[in-house]
Amino acid sequence: MTTFCDLLLSTLLVILLVLFVYIQQVPEVQATVQQATETMEQANTTMQQASATLQQAKESQLAADTKKGELDQRSKDLDKFQESLNEGLKQQRVDREARARAVAARNKAEKDRQRAVEDKKKAIAVARKARSEAEKARALTARSQKDAKAARQQSSLDRAVLKSVVETVGVDLVFVIDLSQSWKSTQPRILETVRLISEVLPDMSAEVRIGLIGFREAVVHQQSLTQVLPNSIDGGRSQRQIARIVAGMQGKSARVDIERAIDHGMHYLQDRSTDGRMQLLVVIGDVGMEERNGDEVLDVDEQADAKRLFARVKAWTGDHSHRRILTLFVGDEADTLGQKFFTLLAQSAGTRGRYSDNHSHLVIEAVRSAIPKNTPPNTK
After folding, report:
1. Using alpha carbons only, what angle is made at residue 357 by residues 354 and 362, rounded to the nearest 5 degrees?
2. Going by CATH, does the domain composed of 131-370 fall within 1.10.287.90?
3. pTM of the model
4. How many whole angstroms separate alpha carbon 148 and alpha carbon 362?
5. Model confidence over 159-202: pLDDT tens digits?
6. Which of 172, 186, 264 shows the shortest CA–CA distance to 221?
7. How far apart are CA 255 and CA 295, in angstroms?
8. Engineering a disulfide at 253: which of 122, 181, 185, 246 sits with its beta carbon 3.0 to 4.6 angstroms away?
């Protein structure tokens, strides 16, 4: 019991001591409490400010989210607008290309129409030309037949005189023929006349030899001197050979080198043993030296070459009384250069040269040229 009392007393003393100590520290505690209260109030104020700031942040976040949504919507709208713009631009390109194709198609159609009109005009012109050529051909054929008939009639008049000549001495005849296209419409008549001569002369005698040279920029057809016999001897074989070569001579567009062809013809005859035979070189064409260099102007070099050619022709005939040259101009009368060349070519042979522009009487001219001057021909 005593112990309990002591313990209680001790406890009371401790409590009293604690109370005493507490009472001694109350002002300090009160100050601390005051400070704590102020701190609490400051903390509350700060808390309120933080809450307000947080509220503002939330509001700002909400506004930002709203703005972001608006911006996203605007971005989507811009994307849609860009897509729409691209589609519009693409459609514009497609439309432009379509218009360009339409314009190109119209232009092509117009060109095709113009070409068709031109082709139609050309076709009409060609048809007219063909009709004109056909009419000319028919006229030429009729004229050839008429000329052939006249030539046969005329040749029959000179037959007696010529027969005595060719039977006595014989005749070598070389034709040098221009095969350019410039006188193509007349060539068939001339070539037919050449064929006719190959038929007429052999009927008078078996002592007839004929050579052929066709030329353009070079010699393109040639037949060396070949004896042409009457039908009664070889059945017309030698005459058909000449006719085949003549038929193969076709006019084409080209320059002509008449100088080389004439030299070729003179060599044909010069290299042959004449035995007193008459030799006749017949040059047929429509241009002289002026086309050799590819133009239609007689330049200085061509003039000099022409003079040298005339000198060679003069030397070829020379004192050879059995040699003759016949030049037949078949060109346009307005072509004075061609006429002058063929005239001077014949004159270079002196009395043994003959010039003619009457291609309708080639047979007669050939007959007359082949007859020696001391043998008077029938002049009828």
Report:
1. 75
2. no
3. 0.54
4. 10
5. 554 455 455 467 888 999 888 877 666 667 777 777 777 777 77
6. 264
7. 8
8. 181
